[in-house]
Design brief:
Elements lengths: L6 H24 L13 H14 L17 H13 L3 H5 L5 H5 L6 H12 L5 E4 L15 E5 L2 E12 L6 E7 L10 E7 L5 E7 L8 E12 L3 E2 L5 H37 L1 E2 L2 E2 L4 H29 L5 H25 L1 H5 L5 H7 L10 H13 L2
Parallel strand pairs: 1-4
Antiparallel strand pairs: 2-3, 3-7, 4-5, 5-8, 6-7, 9-10
Bound molecules: flavin-adenine dinucleotide (FAD).
Length: about 400
């Protein structure tokens, strides 16, 4: 068993670290980001050039295949890079890698024309997308979506509503799941469409205001929205077959994010524990604090090893349905416990807005819900155990 990181990957990680330290962190300081309300969404004029530059440097699309301009990086490499991007505790560093890999990986099914129009500009960081599956009546039970797409000549007419769609307000196009055959539903009745911003009948609805303000979830509304049949992704009815292929990678990308955030919170907690004195001694000398730090680091170590192993297994071409669900379940619960300890170690300051430790406590709560809740992951793991 070889745990060494290949030289080529070390070079990528090194180049990314330098990019963040020499360009992104100074840019954040220049814009006074540390003094901004962390619950305010970052200005697009700041984020979009960073995404473009990250695309030029090859970090943004590193997980995508080479034939669309991506880096063709394996899952272990992508996991390490994504973990690193989130470990800086910087919104711009996080933006230097694309959002959850699964959703954009689904675009490998694009035909040549779609690749040129949608996928290549996305990989170059020139445009962004949104993954529109969830509806008011269908989240975990995604096969119950009701957004309908009816073929009419060389178009499909879409009607329906999506909710909680991340980046929906800014995306140049949305990857939209809609029912094309109501009798079949998830067994061949749901298709994926690439719907461009500005298409008549497609609009952004209400903003979904959540526990933290720095992210952007919105409703997307489709009213007799005519989408060219050329924008159907892959074959009609094959949406879930396609999505299933990338579910594992998508879950691992959430795990990598958890690893990076946990590392950041541990680093911050260590620094604080060393400099904060009570009763004449740094709190780092107290066993109560040391035990919290030890638990945080041990859980992170376990989480790292299981995620790297699942990524490696995926790279060998083995199925990782059970493992990716285990990783998603454990790493998201782990980072919630780490964030809780981080608040505790920082005491009153941990709860105050002045430090953004409390924001992380709220941020990581969403990770137990998105990309399949903890309960759904347990259901998948148990099913796979019982099927043996
Ligand atoms: C911050 C954020 C960003 C999001 N971004 C996107 C996005 O970009 N695109 C998108 O399409 N969606 C997005 N979502 C939606 C997200 O994927 C769903 O919220 C999630 O899948 C859960 O679905 P639900 O909210 O309908 O909950 P439900 O499915 O209604 O679940 C409610 C509760 O019941 C439990 N439950 C459900 N079924 C079972 C079962 N069979 N057995 C046991 N327990 C069960 C769940 O675990 C949960 O605890 C986002 C959500 C959030 C919070």
């Amino acid at each position: 068993m070889n745990f060494a990181i290949p030289e080529e990957m070390k070079m990528v990680l090194d180049a990314h670290r330098k990019y963040v330290e020499q360009e992104l962190l100074p840019l954040e300081r220049q814009h006074g980001i540390e003094k901004r309300d962390p619950d305010e969404e970052l200005p697009r004029e700041l984020v979009e050039p960073v995404i473009r530059r990250s695309g030029e440097l090859g970090f943004y699309g590193i997980h995508m295949p080479e034939d669309v301009g991506g880096g063709g990086m394996d899952n272990v490499g992508v996991t390490l890079l994504r973990e690193q991007a989130f470990s800086f505790g910087s919104a711009l560093a996080a933006a230097s890698v694309a959002g959850p890999e699964g959703p954009s990986l689904i675009l490998v099914d694009a035909n040549e024309e779609q690749k040129k129009k949608f996928v290549e500009p996305l990989v170059r960081g020139e445009i962004t997308t949104a993954f529109a599956l969830t509806e008011p009546g269908a989240g975990s039970d995604a096969q119950s979506i009701r957004t309908r797409a009816v073929r009419d000549g060389d178009h499909y007419v879409l009607n329906g509503q999506k909710v909680f769609i991340t980046n929906g307000a800014h995306a140049a196009f949305a990857i939209v799941f809609a029912v094309t055959n109501p009798e079949l539903k998830g067994r061949g009745g749901i298709s994926v469409f690439l719907v461009e911003k500005g298409t008549p009948g497609f609009r952004v609805g209400r903003k979904n205001v959540g526990m933290i303000g720095g992210t952007s979830q919105v409703e997307l509304i489709f009213e007799d929205c005519r989408v060219p049949a050329a924008n159907l992704l892959g074959q009609e009815g094959f949406a879930f077959v396609t999505a299933m292929r990338f579910l594992g990678a998508g879950r691992l990308s959430i795990s990598a994010m958890c690893l990076g955030i946990a590392q950041h919170l541990i680093n911050r907690s260590l620094d604080y524990a060393k400099q904060r004195e009570t009763f004449g001694r740094p709190i780092a000398e107290r066993q109560a604090i040391q035990w919290m730090l030890a638990e945080m680091a041990t859980e992170l170590y376990a989480a790292k090893n299981m995620t790297y192993h699942a990524a490696w297994k995926c790279d060998q071409g083995d199925p990782i349905v059970r493992e990716s669900s285990m990783c998603k379940l454990y790493t998201t619960e782990m980072v919630n416990r780490v964030a809780d300890h981080a608040v505790q170690i920082h005491g009153g300051m941990g709860w105050m807005r002045e430090l953004d430790i409390e924001r992380y406590y709220r941020l990581v709560r969403m990770l137990r819900i998105v990309e399949g809740t903890s309960e759904i992951q347990k259901m998948i793991i148990a099913r796979s155990l019982l099927a043996e």
